[in-house]
Each structure stands twice: as structure tokens, then as C-alpha cells.
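Format is sequence with structure; example below:
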Amino acid sequence: MFKSVQDVLNSCRDSLTLTKEGIQITDVLGFREKVIDRLVYTSVFHQEKELVEVCQYIIFELAKKLGIFPASIYEFYKGMARNEYGGFSVPAINIRGLTYDVGRTLFRVAKERKVGAFILEIARSEIGYTKQQPDEYTTVLLGAAVKEGYRGPVFIQGDHFQINARKYKENKEEEIESLESLVREAIAAEFYNIDIDTSTLVDIEKDTLQEQQKLNFELTAEFIKIIRNIQPEDIAVAIGGEIGEIGMKNSTVEELRAYMDGLLRILKKDNLETPGLSKIAVQTGTRHGGVVLPNGSIAKVKIDFDTLKRLSRVAREKYNLAGAVQHGASTLPEEVFDLFPKTETCEIHLATGFQNIIYDNPLLSRDFREKVYNYLSEEFGDERKKDETDDQFFYKTRKRGFGPFKKEWWDLPQEVKDSIMGELKLRFELLFKKLRVEGTKNLIESKTKPPVLPTKIPDALHRILPV
């Protein structure tokens, strides 16, 4: 890690010129080889706030100088809603651990395959158990793009920005305020894509679909208004909604209509001129992380692709959305991924499958894995069901092993990380091919304008920089 702000400036001297007016790059290759890794590492693990802010500032500003910028996928999805193009499904990839290395691998594959249509996301729950705040997540991913020489828009998304039903019941104002605070923090960190998930409040005991979805669409409307009021000028944040909690019963076209009609009535009544939703998440048979059997294998899941196709079509034709969003897809068998573009699914969310590749790598030290598992047993053992095997319990809880051991994951021996990234590279290549997003780079860039948002120079840097 860098030791001080002056240490950063000394290391950047041969590749960057920093003044109060901004940053000029003089040696891109030298910066990639000698500086960016240390900047990213320091921004994540140093305890001194001022030094972290300086590292983040340099990464943000330099990325933009090199044509790498956080962006909204809103305009691209508008074109999809108008049927101007299609035949592909956009992968949205959650990175829970080894974020810099995974990000580098992703950008490398995207660059090789000319992929522009992909999203990097993190859920509200993941921010907590992986210990990755929004500003850190954006910083690390922009740093990864700089390292790999990637250029173009980077779609960073808040996934499942979710209302906790139990906390809402106990104190709804406090829970709404908590989620609003996260939304504000995310947008400040240049998350310009946010999925609001209030489907946890759907009450299937109510008599009509309108009544069942009422709290869901009312709160979605409230958060649309919040987001539109705080988003930067000239940026329309791409917002997603959700009609059915993932892992519960399958969604229906009638539920989609009840939700969207109720939402649009509220937005119209409030004279909200800015856009509403870009997409809608539905439930068609998957469960986050898949269902693990007693022997540790993943149960086969049957997705209702006919329903998924109908939902996507109605979302597009009646409500001008890009289509339906499929969650919980990363543990599905390879052969089904070809079907998502055919059913006009606009977006696929992928997370646990990548986590499995990391944890199950044969070069990962048994001692380290057992250290993580012992922690999980001590901290979460009271959540273990009586009939759960070790395989089932650890599969369910090991996502919580990334945050407490984040530095140890980052500091794994290079040969172990190389092995993990080699397997992830093959997985990303397969997903990009099957979801048919290869060659979407030029299309994405034609639909995405780089925002002009200079980052404020941190006080610690401003004090010592020349004019």
C-alpha cells in the first residue's frame, strides 16, 4: 500500500501530471504497470480516509481521461423497448470477492470479444456481507478497466435495493429512510443503474392482484421520484422494478399488469414527467444460489420459459420496457442460456456460480477454506437447520465469508488467483456467447453518451498541488 499522499504523488510523477486543474496522463503503460495496482489496493485497505479519497479521485479522473466512464443503460434499453435491436440478453454480474481480479478478467474478455452490453452489480445485502461500499466498488472496477486497457461505458448497478419486510413492519419510516440513504450513497458513487425491490411487501393473502401489489407499486413510485430528484443533470438512471420475490411462486402476466397499471397511475397523478422503469424483474422458477442437495450438488431447476417470453413481450409492447429480468440464473446448466435471448429476456442476473468457482478451486488452500468455514460455523451456526448436511450449510452461508476475510482473499498466492481467473474467464466467454452479447460494443457506445461530471479534488490533495 501507499503510505501517504506524498508517496502517491512521488509514484505518479513519471506517468501523471497533477494540478489543481485536474490530471494529465503522460505514460499510460507505465501507470498501468507500476501504479494502478497500488492505488486500488490502498483505496480498499488503508485506514486513513484522506489517503483513500486521494486514491479514489485519481482512479475516477484518470479512468474518464482514458474514455472509461460509469454510465446509465437507460438509453440502450429504450431502443430495446422500441424493438430497434434485440436477440440478446444483457448479463448482470455480481462480484462478491476478489473484485479487482474478477473485474480485470471480465474487462479482458469483454475487450477480446467486443462486448459492451454487460452490467457489474452489487446487491444491498452483498454490500453488507462482502464489506464493499458503493464508492469502493466503483473505484475497484474502474481501476480494473484502466489496468486492462478497456474503454467505453461501464454500467454499475445497485441490485436488489430491497425493502426488508420484517424491518418495514416494525418501523416503516426507518426502513424507507435506510434504503433512501443507500440510494443516495450509490448515486454519489456513480451507480447509474438501480433495481428497486419492494416485492418483499407483496401480500398474496389479499383478494385482488391490485391489492396484493399495492404496497409494491406505491413504494416503487416513491423511489422513482427520489432517484429522479437526485440523479445528476443529463443522466437518466436506469431503474428496475420487481413483481415477484425471487424463490417464491412464479409471476403471471396479470400480476405484471396490476403492478404496472398501479405504478403508472401514481406517476401520472403526481405529474412526474421524468421516466419510470426501464425493466421488470419476474419469478419464473429459479432461486438465488440454486437449491443445494444433501450431497452438495445443485438440484435441477425447470424455468417456465413460456411465461418468461409472455412477460417480456407484454412489458415491451404495453409498457415500453426493455423486457423481463431473470434473477438467480448463474447455477443453471449451460444448455439453457441459449434460451434467454430467444424468449426476449432483457437481462440475466448472475452471482453464485462465480462464487462457487472461487471457493471450489482445487488450488485454494484447505487450511484457508476451513478457516472461513470455522468462522461461519461459529457466527451463523444457530441458523443451521436440523436436517442440513455440512455441504448444504456451508453452501448457503459461505457468501458471508468474503467480507471478514477480504484482505486474505485479495492476498491469495498468485498461482491460486491465476487458476481461479482462468476458470472464470472460460465462464464469462461462454455466457457472453450464449447470451449473444459478443460484438455489442459499437452498438452500446452509439447509445451511451459520456457524462461530464468532474470529481471534486480532495482537500488533502488540493492543499499540496500546484495551480
